[in-house]
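ESCALATION

Customer reports they have been waiting on this structure for their group meeting. Please prioritize. Original submission:
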Amino acid sequence: MIFELKTPLTEETIRKLKVGTIVYLSGVIFTLRDQGHRRVIEEAKKGKKPPMDMKGLAVFHAGPIVKKVDNKWRIISIRSDNKHKNGTYRTRIHQTNRNKNGDRQGGYGSGNS
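Update from on-call: job pushed to the front of the queue and completed.
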C-alpha cells in the first residue's frame, strides 16, 4: 500500500498506516537532535511551548548541514540519525503534547515520529 501524505497530519491518518506501508511525505518537516529533544522537554516542564507549533508536523531526527544563502538557511546535506538513545526523549515529548484530558494531540505527540 502507498500513501501520499502532507502535513499537518491527523491521528486518524496516522492510524491507517501499517508496517511496510510506503509513505511519501510532504509539507513541513523539521529536524531535532539530542539537544532539541532535551530543550522541548525542559521548556514543557516550565510550562513553556516550543518555538513552533509541532501539532501535525513530522520530525526527522537528523543531522543537517546548513548554509546561509541570501539571508535564508538552506540545507546542503542531511542524513538520518535514528540512534535508539533518543527514544526516551520522544516518549517524553509525546507525554508533554497531550491535552487536558490526557489525549494525544496529533503530530509529534501522536506517536508518529
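Sent to customer with the following note: The radius of gyration is 15 Å.
Escalation resolved.
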